[in-house]
Design a protein that fits this description.
glutathione-dependent formaldehyde- activating enzyme (gfa), 3 helices, 161 residues, alpha+beta, 10 strands, globular, three-stranded antiparallel sheet, seven-stranded mixed sheet
Length: 161
């Protein structure tokens, strides 16, 4: 995992009404190039840092949890600022409420975390150039193949708690 600084990582929405703190390094950071994320974000991709919800503290404000459909049909709950409506993190049905997919762009230092993998590259924008030293897969990935062992152990522990 490439990081420019160590945790904790502070973050906030645009208006500052919701502030949070990631108290641990992410389990994994993935850059999703699927068309669904492109539509949802209005951008070329979504950059998410996955962290246990127990290691994510809300410091100020309270986000609205907005039920949002996903391509899989299983849905996600997006934590949005009730004022500026910026998406701060999501909980996807597959990992449940134990893991938050924090939007890296909402960190106080969004340069702090870079992708560990690029996913759904089969639908990435053709002008996006990927670097050779970061894995890239055409669809989703197998966690057992790509995640570091300590992240897999942390995920298992969060599911058991």
């Amino acid at each position: 995992m490439t990081k420019k600084c160590e945790p904790p990582y502070g973050g906030r929405c645009t208006c500052g009404g919701v502030r949070y703190l990631m108290k641990a390094a992410p389990l994994f950071v993935h850059c999703c190039h699927c068309r669904w994320c492109q539509r949802e974000t209005g951008s070329a991709f979504a950059l998410n840092a996955l962290v246990e919800t127990s290691r994510l503290d809300i410091l100020e404000g309270l986000p609205d949890m907005v039920a949002t459909p996903t391509e899989s049909g299983r849905g996600q709950a997006i934590a949005r600022c009730p004022s500026c409506r910026v998406a701060l993190w999501s909980h996807y049905e597959g990992l449940g409420r134990n893991v938050a997919f924090v939007r890296v762009g909402t960190l106080d230092d969004p340069d702090a975390l870079t992708p560990d993998i690029h996913i759904y590259t089969a639908s990435k924008q053709p002008w996006v150039r990927l670097v050779a030293d970061v894995p890239a897969v055409p669809g989703y990935y197998d966690r057992r193949e790509h995640w570091p062992p300590d992240s897999l152990a942390r995920l298992k522990a969060s599911r058991e708690s």
